[in-house]
Amino acid sequence: MKAILIAGAFSMLVTLLGTRVAIKFLVAxxxxxxxxxxxxxxxxxxxxxxxxxxxxxxxxxxxGYLVGKLATGYMPSASAILIxxxxxxxxxxxxxxxxxxxxKQRSLGLRSKAKMAGQFVVSLVxxxxxxxxxxxxxxxxxxxxxxxTRDIPGxxxxxxxxxxxxxxMIAGTSNAVNLTDGLDGLATGACVMVFGAFVLINIWQxxxxxxxxxxxxxxxxxxxxxxxxVASALTGACFGFLWWxxxxxxxxxxxxxxxxxxxxxxxxxxxxxxxxxxxxxxxLFVAITASVILQVGYFKLSGGKRIFRMAPLQHHFxxxxxxxxxxxxxxxxxxxxxxxxxxxxFYWEWVAGV
Length: 354
Fold this sequence. Notes:
Order of helices and strands: HHHHEEHHHHHHHH
Mean pLDDT: 90
Radius of gyration: 20 Å
Strand order of the largest sheet: 1-2
Number of strands: 2
């Protein structure tokens, strides 16, 4: 428990102080955000705002976790190493995307195929290691089952199918956070809530773990307490970054931050056996992604008609006339409701024993 508190506090302190330094450095290097011409016209005032702030989040999370482990004297677990590796790997892809945008002075960075290929490689390495890295009892960080709040009986799948499932989970979630990151502080604030939920879930699963308590309601999750340390570091880092990213944003996280944070969320869902519950916990991300899918699908099927004035969903409300800060706060409220509902379902399942 001590490591959880230290990791969260230290990573928050690093982003609070480090982001200020990063802003000065990025401004001096003229590493500013490029705005799409087809986006809301109100966003043109954000042109030149420093981007790639996700680098600060990544550094803060890694340092926070390491300081938490050093302070308590425990070695990193396999689960923590894997989820941090996934986090860093997707962050590197996001960094390349952001850097190309800045260096080439265009609003699009990596080509879509190159971006997808990078995500595929990182996710594949994570999946193969996660389903094959056994501990002394034979447990692996990711099981071969599909889960809601724990593995669903009878839903055990072949290793190849599970790898595909992991790839889809990571690609879907990382891109969902990327789509949500369109207004000042929106994605960052939502991520704070989701990672905070995983801190609580991991602590609960540690206290009711089958490694220590063999009863019918125990959780077959490997390294839950160490996962809580990582989740705490992510929560603290996002919370500290929000100080600078809230409207009017002094810095954007860029794809460096959104892809890495989205991948980490998927990794937690897979490792905590809450894969389908993520639809509830990350309800805001699901709704925003669904708005893009519906918009594109309806546009093609109807010959050019639209459901929303613009997708993702947050831009529709901008064009309707809502102020940006109003959209962000109301979407935060929606995210908070989704996270609360997800935690409620998680706890209800344990109480009811279903």
